[in-house]
Amino acid sequence: MMIKKIIITTTTFSVFLLTGCSQTAPDLMGKNNVSDATQIAGDTVTIDENRYGNENGAGGKYNSSSDGFQSIYFEFGDYGVSSGMENSIASNANVAHNASASKIKIEGNCDEFGTDEYNYALGLKRAKAVKDGIAAQGVNTSKMVIVSFGESNPVCSNPTDGCYAQNRRVDLRLVK
Amino acid sequence: MKYILLLLLSINLFAVDATLKIETDVEHRSRIALVDGSVVPNDKIFKILLADLKISGHFLADTTQHTGDITSNFIEPALKSKEYVLKYALSQATGTKLVIRLLKASDGTQVFKKSYSIPTTRKMPFLAHKAISDINNVLKYPDISWINRYVVFTRYTTPRQSEILLADYTFNYQKVIIRGGLNLFPKWADKKQKSFYYTSYAGLVPTLYKINIYSGAKKKIASSEGMIVCSDVSKNGSKLLLTMAPKGQADIYELNLATNAKTRVTNFNGIDVNGKYVDDESRMVFVSNRLGYANIFKKSIHSSAVSQVVYHGRNNNACDAHGDKIVYSSRESKNAFGSNTFNLYLTSSRGSGTRPLTTTGTNQFPRFSTDGSVILYIKHRGNGSSIGYTNLASQQSLLFPLGGRKIQSIDW
């Protein structure tokens, strides 16, 4: 009986140790503590000025297209053009109109999280989405050729989400 | 308490890789010891011979490297408990020469003797493989000639640059066969491995070529805007399953090489790739995102009905087939990034008898051996990558370390 009590007591104590006390936290939202509480409890943001798709224009610092085009970036596993990229599509359509004599190569790219053919097909769908977006603004489809480079053409090789995001993109350039 | 113990036991059980599964049919395998009779004992060939014996599934090899006189029929008393002793001598003074003698362990009687010689030293691993496959045949075990085959693979070097290499199955032998530019998706064109197909990015659009590995003769097969990949070759080499996108849409086509006629096999406004002949080659399995994520499906080459083969996993983005057997890689975790996300599963074209083949690391690029008895795959675990082999019958596995460069595609 004594042993049983010891086991129960020890187990209960261990559970408290593991889970911590469930005592209610002190009220920091009191009249005199508002500003302190906000500083401690509020989750702060992290701004990455170099991240793609910022208000400085398509691709921001990381534009890997050439000849005046802007790279279009995609979410993980996705091949739809996001609303944040629509201005870049419009800009690319303008460049395409002005480069009437040249053919435009649209290159689909992926991050490294895919294998074999599927990743190349994903890059292709991205290139096709950009081509369709530009064509919708009046650019002749016969002027555009799409190619998927899958994960073979990374612009960033660090193992970070921000880096992977830079690789999920479509680049545009003139065929010379 | 017993539930906690049970939970811990379960976690431990499921953490065990297929490499550590209880080996079956042990009693049917021959116990064999290796005795190196070379002037200078060679550790490398010992390890290769040992790997060959293990992955064959037909031998229980002594992992101790013994030395002794190859010309003598004397068997060390400690080895008499084995069934066979393989004595060998390697010489690489000029080219490579390998002599083997297979002796009965009980009385030293010679069962088989053969001498192998090639003018180069680099291809030594192939002599070891040939010796073991010959011994396997002498003892009338099921054929393992797949260990003699070349592995062809692409690895990335720098952005938009790659190399296509040949290797033996252990990757001890490696030779670059195409370098310069971006060349991808090598696929053997014939059983004898004289030629392979690959995709070149040298032109405006991707182009499929066939190259003879001995003469270097190259022939253009087809090209396509977007992408073109030779996913599979029919047994007699007359037909190819291609992933192409002539209208910007990745679909699977069958190319008849005799007539040059292309038949569009899939027609879906999403992703259809990775077509592999299955059953009697009138059907194929393939990878499609038609349900919103990459998964394995099956369809007849000449009719439109499509059926789902796999009913688990969040991303099943690669597969291979042999007869009615299918192997596929599957991500079951929610985490899109990070390690331990892809495992290999074996199933049938009917979707029955599914079982896991790996349980740790990231396992991709599954490829059947020519006889369907062994599966090749690439395993990433921690910071390292390996090429792995799993013998489906014996459930024995082998891993050989790979260099740091990323593999793009592989065929066997």
Descriptors for this entry?
heterodimer, A: 176 residues, alpha+beta, four-stranded mixed beta sheet, B: 412 residues, mainly beta, 10% helix
Walk me through this protein's architecture.
The complex is a heterodimer of chains A (176) and B (412). By secondary structure, chain A is α+β, with helices and mostly antiparallel strands. Chain A has five helices and four strands; from the N terminus they run ααβαβαβαβ. The termini of chain A are far apart. Chain B is built from three helices and 30 strands. In chain B, helix 2 (43-56) packs across helix 3 (124-138). Chain B is globular. In chain B, the strands form seven sheets. In chain B, strands 1, 2, 3, 4, 5 and 6 form a six-stranded mixed β-sheet that branches. The N and C termini of chain B lie far apart (50 Å). Chain B is mainly beta and 412 residues long.
Number of strands of chain A: 4
Order of helices and strands of chain A: HHEHEHEHE
**Coarse shape of chain B:** globular
Strand pairing plus helix content of chain B: what structural class? mainly beta
Oligomer type: heterodimer
Spatially, the strands of the biggest sheet of chain A line up as 1-4-2-3
Our measurement of the CA-to-CA distance between the termini of chain A, rounded to an integer number of angstroms, reads 90 Å
Give the count of helical stretches of chain B: 3
